[in-house]
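Q: My labmate handed me this sequence with no annotations at all. I'd like to see what the chain might look like in three dimensions before we decide whether it's worth expressing. Could you predict it?
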Amino acid sequence: MRIFITTVFAFFLFISTNAQQKLSGFFPANTQRQVDYEKEFDALISTKNQDEWMKFLTSRPHHIGSTQGKANADFMANLFRQWGYETELSSYDVLFPTPKSRLLELFGDKPYKAKLEETTLKEDATSGQKSEQLPSYNAYSADGDVTAELVFVNRGVPADYEELDRMGISVKGKIVIAKYGGSWRGIKPKVASEHGAIGCLIYSDPMDDGYAEGDVYPKGPFRPKQGIQRGSVMDMPVYPGDPSTPGYGSTADAKRLDRKDITTIMKIPVLPISYEDALPLLTALNGPVAPASWRGGLPITYHVGPSVAKVRLALQFNWDYRPLYNVIAKMKGSEYPDQWVIRGNHHDGWVNGAADPISGMVAEMEEARAIGELTKKGYRPKRTIVFCAWDGEEPSLLGSTEWVEDHAEELQKKTVAYLNSDGNSRGFVGFSGSHALEQFFNEIATSVVDPQTGVTVSERRYAKSLADADRSSKAKLIGNKYFKIGALGAGSDYSPFFQHLGIPSANIGFGGEGDGGEYHSIYDSYDHFTRFKDPGFQYGTALAKTTGRAMLRLANADVLPFDYSILVKTIGEYVADVKTSLELKRTDDEMLNRLIKEKVYELAKDPTLGFAGPSPKQLVPYLDFSSIDNAMTLVRTSSEELKAAIEKAGSADAQKRARLNEILYQSEQKLLNPNGLPRRPWYKHMIYAPGFYTGYGVKTLPGIREGIEESNWKEAQDYINIVANTLLQFNFSLQKGIEALR
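A: Here is what I predict for the chain of 742 residues:
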């Protein structure tokens, strides 16, 4: 693989870093000035600062409500002030449960009491800070004391329960054990509870991030047998943020829900465990051998269960309100102070949190410092730049969501874009976000040099795509270096900006060569990160240059670089995809019905069996997509007309351009529906949302797609028409943009 990628690098070296760049959004007279600013910016970026800041910020556990969490917020706020930013700590009191007691034990002839603890390592300087570490647990689990047989449910997603049904295995009244992975962790207890389970265990299998992948920590980066992944299981696909204040800021005078009335707290007790603690439990299972795809890396035969011996899971939590501290640092724009370009990364961790999140946080800080240095040389951004360090992301996007809900009206009026990062490591650049910014990010990627190879990060990403492609795909990729950015689901602080307010957003980071098993454990430390994730902070520097460059261009663009023809083309692809999914479902159900009829016919020949057989499935109806097809025709035409008009915007006066820019950054808000999605009105974006049963994973056209997946045909048809109406609103905004230049 490495030999091939190196060969591709040699063949596809970019022509010259000194060639005149085309910068979307900049008139030719201003392009060179912007390029010069970016060169000065690059020269100011330091790896030494990132190293020193990470060493301090990860020196003690810094979860929400901790002493070090507040110290970190104060430390960062003071630095932002020194760099010339108007800075404040924005604080909210939020519901954040922590463990009071935890017990997991196996009864029977081979009893076992789970350790539920990670081992201090002499090779890891911060792993022994036991009195300050949060114990291993899943935040927003229910309290409970339950005893029952155990059933293995693989990843614990809906498809796994369909497989259990085929095997005749029920989880009703049982405790389930699921592997991490395959979905966001909160989906596992949610689906288990819906199937009647009374408790849920989640363990890290060594096949995923332990010894099956490589040497375990401290010899290598992967999860040791005692490593445990903490994490939230709040039902964030319904809404994130403080669960007691859904949809509005958790301010001092906010009306809070009583805990018994909160729908997003899990209904059953949930606990994460290590594969050391999981092994005796899995060994105790009887029943069918697990399907091949379910088996992990432990030295046992994986059975589904249920177990003969019972398991007891007993959990109690302190349901306290804790203060969080967001750092908000602003540099006022010289020409458009009421247009904001916002950058964010969270600063809280489950324990010491070096990779997640401090690796991204120190890159953001270095961006802010470098821009501050440029202002001392006379540079001033045209638009206001806002740097944010969010608290409480890990439990449920608490800090960002409460701040966004608290300032929603102002943010929708002023925010040009929100750029997010989270963890960062060695490897390849990744962009996900608003597709109107796809061309913009392609240009950004061609102007940042990869520290490992010396080519641009775009070239390195292109080389990897060629190396990974099969023969037919490779033929299509040769010479086509343009890349599609990903769609945003959930899992980080862009969610309230994007899916709740419709603010154009992106998530940016590097990765792919910093694998490990430290995630959400005590081993996510400075020692682990600097050995295995990004030694020398080379990719922290690459992230600072990439995201910092995007901030500078958005802050200074003559015409904001939104290309809505790309967004419209992407939406068209999503429409075609949901139509295809409908046809596939129809074909599958018709085939199943034929098989059912054939089986019933054969069995009915023997009247002694008394077999009625399964009922045929309701046939998939033909949904009417005409409203959305007609709306797509209009927005395709308008987006192309707007693109052509923008190319001539240089001849327009400043007032017209200012009006155009305002329309451009507010147009994506027209893709919101005020009533939101079914059963989760907080998610208002009609094109992108986290899946109801995927968590982090995105569902595009979610109202339509999930209606089809769940055979809720009325809902699917309703949302075809709702999406069509939002597209008409969006089209009206595009038309206003065209008219603004007339």
